[in-house]
Amino acid sequence: MDTEAELPKRSTARHKCVACYKQFKRKDHLIEHMKISYHSVHQPKCAVCQKLFKSFESLREHLTGPLSKAHCSGIFSDRGCNLCMNSFDSPSSLIKHKEACSLSAPVPFEKTLSNAESQKKISGAIDEKRICRGPKAVAMDCEMVGGGSNGTLDLCARVCLVDEDENVIFHTYVQPQLPVTNYRYEVTGLTEEDIKNAMPLKEVKDKILEILNNGESTGRLMLDGGKARLLVGHGLEHDLDSLRMNYPDHMLRDTAKYRPLMKTNLVSHSLKYLTRTYLGYDIQSGVHDPYEDCVSVMRLYKRFRSQDHQVEEIGNQNPTGSFDSYKYKELEKMSPNELYQISKSDYRCWCLD
Length: 353
Fold this sequence. Notes:
Low-confidence stretches: 312-321
């Protein structure tokens, strides 16, 4: 008797995630994967194979890393942009795109003005002509000097704000509330003379909040922002702490914490790295210029805000998943594509601003 013929054949069917292409032996494993992966149309995507990634760093490794996929890597090397990670129909289209995608470093703030103009611009006056009345974004950067017995306590000594058109709307030296024990001159370029008669910290905070709040009530600001302005920066929590200032989390756009721009282990990249990798130029090669940092972080924000995600196909307004609204038996009956359709991102994409 042929006993092998009588044995039931085991199913070799695999359950494949349509977003990241991982395969599972069991359907319940796929369901659990979808619950914790938060796949959505807002994740970085390979333009060749359409695979989704949690960060642009992972996408870059897929296309250009030592273990890159040969098919995708080959096409991307001919028709892909190393800055925005998009692919194009032809080499000529790529060349035309790179002319706009690769940016030049902003001219240092002091070099764009005469000495008298420079002193006026760093006087702490708000440039009313540069402030639009709409709820547009404002970028901010602070330069820190050292306080405390060993000079390691960060104290804000200079702050700059620019609008979306890279115009300075507020720029001033700041008088720290504690004695300065280390001016960190090699990095900040600041001396005792710069901050001796500088604007007090509280006055600086009030002026910045005046710009950001834009006349909006506190209740509306906390609810949905209203006509208040988005605040863009890198490491904003640190800057806000140094200014003794609070601003609602939903109004912050931080390049250090934006999920697609972080490392694969969810550690932040430096602004210097992000600028070189995604904008194509170097910053902070010597003394840090807060205007240069403001412009760079605003350019990063605008670049990723302009991404065209097909949000009409897969909604992502609510950053929480929706799997809990289905019974498990209902999820088991769904196809991999249907599971993806109800999956939502665990962060707010900037394309929704």
